[in-house]
UniProtKB/TrEMBL annotation:
It comes from Dokdonella fugitiva. It is an enzyme of class 1 (oxidoreductase). GO terms for molecular function: oxidoreductase activity; protein-containing complex binding. It comes from the Bacteria. The keyword Ribonucleoprotein does not apply. Keywords: Oxidoreductase. Residues 10-153 form the NAD(P)-binding domain. Its EC number is 1.6.99.3. Pfam families: NAD_binding_10. This is NADH dehydrogenase. The keyword Nucleotide-binding does not apply.
Amino acid sequence: MKAQKIVVLGGTGFVGRHLVPRLQRDGHAIRVLTRNRDLHRELGVLPRVALVNADVHDRAVLARELAGADAVVNLVGILNERGSDGAGFRKAHVELTRTLLDACAGTGVSRLLQMSALRAGEGTSHYLQTRAQAEALVQSSPLAWTIFRPSVIFGDGDGLFSRFAALLRIAPVLPLARARARFQPVYVGDVAEAFARALAHPHTHGHTYELGGPRVIELGEIVRWTARMIGKRRIVLPLPDALGRVQALVGEWLPGKPISRDNLRSLQLDSVVRDDGLAALGIVATPMEAVVPRLFAGDERQRDLDSYRRG
């Protein structure tokens, strides 16, 4: 495989922290654009990886950083916005993609890998609608593009099991909106592998890949399974939709926005793949059972220690 010069936007986020080392192992030279490189020095110590402070929303800055690149990877995305009118989602997903496409046109970069989301364009959530609008911009461009639509992504440092584990450690009862919503969680390492293979194979140009794991599971079971992983006996209380809307409204005012009204709108749709993108790329999906218990191994060691101390 020919080594390439690759620029990564959003490379210091959850997926990026797994993707950048994966691309580095293929011999690529990678520039990761970030708001504060001092917060992510662990990536900068990798060979052929450069962390660059850059405002990715500034077209002139993007054009400067894209000069000489063979490909660009756009991982930028948000699950919640500061307000609730969709402006934050439009800036992160649509306006940034438009700026990036303009910068690619001005610098001659012809290859783009774009992160999106499963069920983009369906339902009424700003998150899914703006993901689809960004996709449309990419698809109408002259670039050799590949789009990825993952279900919820799990792995070390995720916002799924790790977030619920943090809540379950302090909450004996966890009220849960849309507990019957179905997901097909996909391992972050498999997502990184999909991006790496797409860069290596021209036949992925102009294709959209839906990425899901080997198991379809309801949200309530994800939470109950997480409780078992951390050794906590917890009550998961499914909420009717009316109370779920109240929870989402209150959640918008809590630190970190654990749930928002837009999240709730996204949860109206099952996040389950229709076409197996991992299989199309020759990737065998990693089951949750092979990864998640390792994420909470420290909890198990602590339980063993506590048991020993009690005699």
